[in-house]
Amino acid sequence: MRTAFISHLVERARVNPKIFLVVGDLGYSVVEPFANLFPDRFLNAGIAEQNMTGIAAGLAMEGYTVFTYSIANFPTLRCMEQIRYDICYHNLDVKIVSVGGGYAYGSLGASHHATEDIGMMRTIPNLIVSAPGDPVETRAVLDSLLSTSSPAYLRLGKAGEPVIHANEIILPVGKSVRVLSGRNTAVLTTGAMLQHSLTTIQKNNYDFSLYSFPFVKPLDLERLAEISSNYSTVITIEEHQKSGGFGSAILEGFNDLLEAGVISKLPTVRRIATPDIFTYTAGSQEYLRKTLDLTF
Amino acid sequence: MDTIEFAREIRSRTLEMVYNAKASHIGGAFSMADILAVLYGSVLKIDPAEPKAADRDRFILSKGHACTSLYSTLAIKGFFDIDLLDTYSKDGSFFMAHTSHKVPGVELSTGSLGHAMPVACGMALAAKRKSEKQHIYVLVSDGELDEGSNWEAILFAAHHHLNNLTCIVDYNKIQSLGRVDDVIQLDPLKDKFVSFNWDVVEVDGHDHDQLLASFNNKTLTDKPRCIIAHTIKGKGVDFMQDDLKWHYQSPSADQYSAAQKQL
After folding, report:
1. What's the pLDDT at A158?
2. What is the rounded average pLDDT of the residues B93-105?
3. A-chain residues near B117 (CB < 8 A)
């Protein structure tokens, strides 16, 4: 995903002179193509994420579309107040990119597990929250984020996620995409759990539908209304704490639709997420997913 | 209006706003009034008729709690109708008790300390990258230099030779719960900025000639500049000067009259 992101950003930067990339001294062997092609629109802000984020706000105030780029919790939790107050309160054109969502950096430990970011980010007004599920979605989401001057958070996996969608797709901000059609249950996933969900359904021959939600905010309520009329059972799955994450957003969405009278009944929602714990052992992403029972 | 009269008018308007709204932070608003008067009276290239002109100088007040004297300054300069100051801190007003970018002439909302220096660095870097000539000024309090984000920005500005950036420290020696020397000592402050590769000058922050000379010093190196302005909290009203309680207290009717008389 990160390779898809940077390659696509380079392509867009060739024709969009406002795109500016600011990195927090991370991105070795990833960001160099951008830095080499557009040295006037590249900055390594050093290991100082609060400053990096404030600088991004200042650059955006002067007309740039700024991408901040780092890994795990560093461009998000470390500088949460700069995101909330400098970027979002001023509604600036800054896109915050974090590589290594969830347990992508599994063996590096809890410092590098981004498992509370969605919950924190989605409470901030003006901020779009996105987590594409494969390289195709990454390109589509990047294009849709570039079509708006709103601030946004882009949560990426790491490298090497397989391509799920056979063809390029268009994903307007706030839209989801159906990956599989089935009858019994609708599985809703965000971010890099897409591949795991697809494999699980196919391996077990489940008669399930699979939907990828690359946008956690705004949420595709139209899709939720459609799902609630077709399924009585819904599974949400994410690499994130159960509290406040994607599954919570889905629950809230169903509830708001019911309250507004758009739907007449709530489906049963089984939320698969990290059960309010940290991990204290080393382990790959796959190992941690298994240990935490992030499957269905 | 000369800058001395400008500063007097800023303090008088500030006092009125704080008194009417029963607000706090008059001490820190008074300590920087002379700096604002000199900047807005004689230094900044700004046009109240075109507050968003691309080539304007940018001024950011980092110590947003002292916004009353900035609002007064902008009103006197004609950025908006001066009567709007009467809405300060009232329900539905843009004139919040921490600096709001919804007020014409304000570049950045501030209130959480340690935010403006990084943003100012971004603005200064943008000007450099675009070969634009505007200068970026940021006014910080002494207490907020406790915030590590400032020092990230101070490192950054020197590394990137942002000589289009000037940081003014309103060094009034009192922070939220006590004297700076007792809470987190800053001295030797000049040495700190010098060791971070900034050009530093220390001035009496109430001496307009010294302030003007420091702003107008054109012997620019490739370094960002820091002006450490030694000031007195509550400057201008004898019973408010150098006293922590005027970080919080709002003047009574008698104190208001006495203060206006002194101003």
Report:
1. 86
2. 97
3. 51, 54
The reply to whether B92 touches chain A by the CB within 8 Å rule is no
pLDDT at B217: 87
Domain total for chain A? Answer: 2
Smallest Cα–Cα separation from A102: which of A91, A118, A89, A88? A118
Q: Does B157 touch chain A (CB under 8 A)?
A: no
Burial class (CB in 10 A: 0-12, 13-18, 19+), A130: buried
pLDDT in tens, B179-234: 999 999 999 999 999 999 999 999 999 999 999 999 998 767 999 999 999 999 99
- Give the pLDDT band (50/70/90) at residue B246: very high
* Residue A17 to chain B, least CA–CA distance (Å): 12
Report the percentage of chain B scoring pLDDT > 70: 99
Q: Distance (Å, rounded) from C-alpha B236 to C-alpha A284? A: 65
Interface test with B, best of A21, A62, A80, A84 (most B CBs within 10 A): A62
Q: Is the pLDDT of residue A207 over 80?
A: yes
- Helical (H) or strand (E) element with A66: strand A65-71
d(CA A265, CA A137) in angstroms, rounded, equals 31
Q: Which residues of B186-206 are buried (b: 16+ CB within 10 A; e: fewer)?
A: beebbebbeebbbbbbbbebb
Do A198 and A149 share a structural domain?
Answer: no
Task: Look up residue A179 and give its DSSP letter.
Answer: E
Same domain, A52 and A121: yes
CATH code assigned to B3-262: 3.40.50.970
Identify the band that residue A7 occupies on the pLDDT scale cut at 50, 70 and 90: very high
- Same structural domain, A198 and A73: no
Chain A contact for B133, CB < 8 A? no
Q: Is A188 in a helix, a strand, or coil?
A: strand
User: Does residue A161 lie in a domain region?
Assistant: no
Element (H, E) at A44: strand A42-44
A5 is written with which tokens? 């992101």
Residue B256 DSSP label? H
Residues 129-188 of A with CB under 8 A from B: none
Is A150 within a domain?
yes
What pLDDT was estimated at residue B123? 98
SS3 category, A259: helix
Find out whether A4 and A157 touch, Cβ atoms under 8 Å.
no
Kindly provide the b/e burial profile for residues A146-157, where b requires at least 16 CB atoms within 10 angstroms of the residue's own CB. Answer: beeebbbbbbbb
